[in-house]
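Hey, resending since the last one bounced:
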Amino acid sequence: MTMTTKPNKPKSAKTPVTKKPPVTAKAAAATPVPAKAVPAKPAAPPLPPCVRLAYRHPGAQAVFLAGTFNQWHPTATPMQCTGADCWSVELELPPGIYEYRFIVDGAWVHDPASAETVPNPFGGLNSVVRVVAAV
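The structure tokens again:
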């Protein structure tokens, strides 16, 4: 009986596995972190132009402003007494054409200082203010 032996195959050489030391806080702080792309914030929209309306009426107790910018609500926009019978208010309005009237102690009156007026359906005049965009 002949016995044959098979040649021994060499065992494949495996790369030895080495354990990495744990990362310390100091080493983590020194490790650069790739920057993340941060989307740019959109620019803030420009503020609407500020419009100042003033009215002078000796002896007035309360003055309000009503117009197309506040749906003609008679008490929505109170004016402030600035002394010497003068009343004023500042509004931030987008560009456009607006009609308005003052309500002085309950009576609706147009602005005598307005350069432009239009007839209203009640037989009186509405004052007009044109607001243009800031350049």
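The two ends are 110 Å apart (CA to CA).

Sorry for the duplicate.
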